[in-house]
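Note to self: the last two entries modelled the partners one at a time, which told us nothing about the interface. This time every component goes in together.
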Amino acid sequence: MWGDKAIELIKELERSTEIFPPFDDDKIRLILEECRVLNQFIEDAMNSTFHPETNNYLAGVKARTAALERNKRCLLAYQWNRLQMLRKMRWEFGSILPVEIKANMSEGEVAWFAKYSKALANYMKGIGGRNGLNLMLDMQPPKDLYIEVRCLKDFGKLELDTGEVFYLSQNSQHYMPRSQVENLVRQGVLEHINWS
Amino acid sequence: MKLHIDFRGNRKIALPDSADTERRKLSPPIPQGRIHLSHQLHEPLHMMFVEDLSEDFINHISGEHILLFVNYDVDAVCACRILQNLFRSESTLYTLVPVEGTQELVEAYKRFSDKVKYVVFINCGGSIDLVETLEPEPDVLMFVIDSHKPSDICNVYSRSQVRLLGKPDESENIPQFEDIFLDTDTEPESEEEEVNEEALKKRRERKLWEEKRNRVMFDYTQFSFCGRASSLVVFELIWNLGKDDLESLWWAIVGLTYQTVMGLIVEQKYACELQVLQLHLSRLTSISQNDVEANRSQFYRITAQKDLRLVLYRHWNVQASLRHTICSALKLKLWTVRSEKRLYQVLAEIGLPLKDSLQNFSSMDVTLRNEFFSMVETIANNHDLDELIYHSFTVSVCYGNNFFQASDYVYAMICLLEDTMKDKSRGSCFSNCIDSLSPTKYNLVLNGIEKCKKLFTSIVRLVQSMLDMKQIISAGPFLYFIINENTSDYSLYAHPMSLAMLARYALNACASQSNYRKHGSLPLIVSAPQSEENCIVLGIPPVTEYVPRNFFGKAFDQALETINTEPILSYFDSAAVRISIKDRPKFFDSLSTILS
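The predicted structure of the combined assembly is written out below.
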């Protein structure tokens, strides 16, 4: 029946347990083929002359148009939902996606993703003063802007954006902006002191 | 005992220098009421004691980057912890560096001071001339919270760069400005050219003035003693700001208890401060009870009560605690063989079965546990053990059944701070110690208490053997003994606080021994190895001295000068110094000449 494959495509996407299921090329080709057949019938009908008894194609064309519309909607819905997923992932993983996900993307999706990243970067450059504002940081508002850290190894001088100079040497403790410290905590130079 | 004091020359005479005036422009004008004016007429002569801390201090520091130097002692750690909470609530960036002695401070200052405009010193720096020693940039402002007295006179009268936080103590007897400093303008410059009557007279006057100054300075610096606990000063600061809570109150209590446990302040002073703290406690408890929201302060439940001075008894057994407490051990002479009988007699009078007295206090019978205090109280009089009873605070942490007396905390923190057994660096000990003040990390305190039991056991054993072997030697004006590397557990005593605990125990034991009785009023110097080459030398005042003031600070300086050596590290407590082992005999010789 017309439209069966389209609904299958949507259902598959919904049923899938993968984070980002592969782009279903084959099914889409089949749907497009179906659309072409439907379209062919409508075109042929349009080119023939109408006769209420021998050549009454009205009902047939109406049904096929509806099927065509439905296929189109399903295809768009499929693509839209996939792009939504990609957008979410852009905020979660950043501009570079894991290889597994990249392999599942279609050509068009890759292009869209690059464009989206570019637009986002431009936007972030444009707001928040001269240096821009990284919207990716602190998606959840942090409890404190500053944290207490203890230095585990001698690191040397660290200058903050605001101009203060911190000398990080072993066993000194500091209270400093979270954003500047995160990297050093990951590197194991600093340790977050949790007192509460 | 005569010390000759050679007070540094007339530095600081040229007033006002350009940096000073510039600084004054930068800082807001200070209303007169807040500053102690030693001289009402001359504005520049006031002492820089900042009393109303809340405004002057906070206005300066909030939102700035602060450099915080903290000494290695319990009071300083407590004060620092309270300050950290304050800084956090003010979003003030800080860098905290623990320092142990003057030399370390100078080095650390050089490393950390880049672009820092505000420096806070806790229990360090007050008794050295900060401006001269650290050579700070002219726009650096230094706040000093130091319980080591006397404060260096240059810090007291520094008009621009140094501020001492807290009230000046009357007992300090700070000399008048005009007795110490002379304005250069009035000095006759052309003395050599014309020797007329006028000049001669002036010169005579100047000589008299100099003599007087030396005398005044000698009186002022002769004894070192302990002022108000820094943690109390800081607690008062945050109280004025309305940011006090039960947590910081407990830290202030621990800071104060440290001073009395180490015998640094007289009983009356402790009692005075105690009353104030009790008022704070009742105020804060009623607030936190009304507070419906479960806030952090409820981790602590503090009660003020009469308690026993028995060391760690809640975490030990009664017998061990009686043996290791100075006062009970002295009164019952618990290091002799015959003392066993006396101990049992006391236990019988208390009404405590022997079996229970050897059990952990926490596993003793509940009724005995609850009534233990009153049982001891009734017999305290008969055995001259009144000293055992004092007012103190207990805390229960984290809803659990973990009761700690303030002194338990102090002992645990001392041991955490000086636990260098397992090749731990001093810095990581400091981190441990400051962590142990957090209510959620009270198992660190338990850990410290275990270490402290070991320390006490070792102290008692060591004192006993020293008395038996007569290892405490009289050098004429003072007693001394040296812990060497053959002594068991020598590494426990490598740092000033544990060494001071040992010294106090030993001196008290000495004074009550009959064969040492004639030396009863002598001070004691102890020395312990710190590494292959270096050792620490520490002096404590005689038992008979009512006010615990210590003249060794000055004496050590003089002795080092005579033998022409620089100390490797001079601790902020001036009566402790680190020198090289091979200099030690010379050092002791020159000490005994100076003091006799």
